[in-house]
Amino acid sequence: MMFADPPAAPIIKVENGIGDASGRICFLLRGVLDAAECARVIDTATAAGFGPTGAHYPPSYRDNDRLVRDDPALADALYARICTLLPQRIEADGVVWRLHGLNERFRYCRYRDGQRFGIHRDGAHARSATVVSRLTCMIYLNDETEFTGGTTRFHANGDPRSPVLGDIRPERGTIVVFDHALWHTGEPVTAGTKWVMRTDVLYERETAALDDLETGETGSTATEHILRGHDGYVWSVVALPGGALASASRDRTVRIWDRTPNGYAPHHVLRGHDSSVTALLALDDGIVVSGCRAGAIRAWQHGTPRTVGCHDGAVLSLKALPDNRILSGGADGHVRWWSLRGSPAAPGHEWAVGSWVWGLASIGDRVFAACEDGSLRWRNASGMEDAAWTPYALRALAVDTGGAVITGDAGGWLRRWEATASGWRDRVAWRAHIGAVCAVVVLPDGRVASGGEDGAVRVWRGVGRLAVHRHDDFVRGLAALPDGRVASASYDGTVRVWESSARPIRRGAFSLRKSSVFGTLPLLSP
Fold first, then answer.
1. Fewest beta carbons within 10 Å, which of 115, 135, 146, 348?
2. Over 60: is that where the pLDDT of 144 sits?
3. Whether the predicted pLDDT of 232 surpasses 70
């Protein structure tokens, strides 16, 4: 799709208070597209066909219609219009980045009555190790003459109750350019239809990057090892025999990292998935099992993949069971049992839970599933099942050394569940993160580590926090290492390994917030 160049009217750059309040880049470019050009973009996208986001994004996160389409000509035409108005250089992560262009992958969003996009930060696009996106470029294709609601609202952090930095009301043909790190929402459309097109501003690394592997001191008496090599989000990390690690990424690879006297070193890259690798599992014999966004589950032995099973949607969780069986949970709302031979392990090899399955765990013959609909579900070998409900989507699940179940949810809460005569009930809950808890793991000494959308890895004994470590973006996966260290996987593209002391962090006393919705012990918050 080509446009006349230059545009019919001059483009006006407008700074706003959001950039001042956040200390990050945020500005408007008014008049980039005229009404006829916006209409052509909408017509082209509509002809290509929109689809629901439910297969790729949890319903609690977003529910609008979406189209992803590569259009290099459109990227070039837009870039020609706005390139002189974009930051020519950006300094971030100790590196200077030079303006490179626009991402040709456009994401078109259609918001109809009641649809919205919950609080989030935009993901970075990594074209290579040296060319990545730093800024969002969002184009409003219509305005409030055709819909009501739909404001873009910026927040101070990932808590939707956090201070509002400012609102941007959609204006036809206007682009809002902002740092990927800014938290924002697409407020619900209350009538009509809102149309938006998003791409990214790409930057090329101009100065030397930090080494692929660094060792240094960080806060909380922690020694940090940083493993770099993935191009894009790192979804998961697991510990392998002999001290090695495996990590899974949006770049469609699984990477193996060997333990060395000074940290870790790249060993091997496993290629074979055709989409983001979203789940990972390590077995005692060194076999690595991976699941991807397209639904495939593969087992890797000596670098060779073998298909084990599949889901009709992203594989979100994997769990090892006795006798070489594997448990998988998916965005298709199913839990499935598989054997390493690549066939379902009958009988009862499928459990329809009807919601995204973010976490799996087992105690004896009982299997637990943490689900997007806010339920903790359990089922025994004879097929008897039950559930308990929480106010938030459950995003993480683990079993502690005492046999209790630990869940993490989209509200930032950790909950400890214990068996009672009437089923499993939460006995205590505490606010652990700002934004969703994405990962929970239990360390060999009984401590619990959690990772969240606030970029933090927190280590707990009971509800007392012992240590805090930081990534530059969401912490999506955690692994407990045999020596008590924690490995974390993040959307910042790194895997990090932390060594923590068990010294408690001084903090204010816990306060009672409210009674548990389940009528058990009070909820606690920092």
1. 348
2. yes
3. yes
Which residue type does 260 have?
A: T
Question: 19 φ, ψ to 5°?
Answer: -60, -40
* DSSP code at position 401: T
Partners of 280 in the β-ladder: 290
Q: In the structure encoding, which two tokens stand for residue 108, read together?
A: 């078109």
Q: Which of 1, 8, 35 is nearest to 171 (CA)?
A: 35
Instruction: For the chain, report the end-to-end CA distance as a whole number of angstroms.
Output: 53
Residues in the chain: 526
pTM: 0.82
Q: Is the separation of the CB atoms in 225 and 500 below 8 Å?
A: no
Please give the single-letter amino acid code of residue 474. Answer: F
Helix, strand, coil distribution of the chain in percent, nearest 5: 5, 50, 40
Helix, strand, or coil (residue 267) = strand
> Phi first, then psi: what are they for 77, rounded to 5°?
-65, -45
| Mean of the per-residue pLDDT values of the chain | 88
Our CA dihedral for 306, 310, 313, 314, rounded to 10 degrees, sits at -40
Q: What is the DSSP string of 125-182?
A: PBSSSSEEEEEEEEEE-S-TTSEEE--EEEESSSSTTSPEEEEE---TT-EEEEETT-
Owner of token pair 């400012």: 166
Checking if the pLDDT of 251 tops 80, the result is yes
Helix H or strand E segment including 279: strand 277-282
Backbone φ and ψ of 202, nearest 5°: -90, 145
Residue where the block lists tokens 């690394």 = 205
Per domain, the residue ranges of the chain are 12-205
184, amino acid identity: H
Q: Class assignment of domain 12-205?
A: mainly beta
What is the pLDDT averaged over residues 4-26?
86
Mean pLDDT of all residues in 138-167: 94
In b/e form, how buried is each residue of 376-394, taking b as 16+ CB within 10 angstroms? bbbbeeeeeeebbebebbb
Is 458 in contact with 450 (CB distance < 8 Å)?
yes
Query: For 491, left (φ over 0), alpha (ψ -120 to 50), or beta?
Result: alpha
Amino acid at 449: A
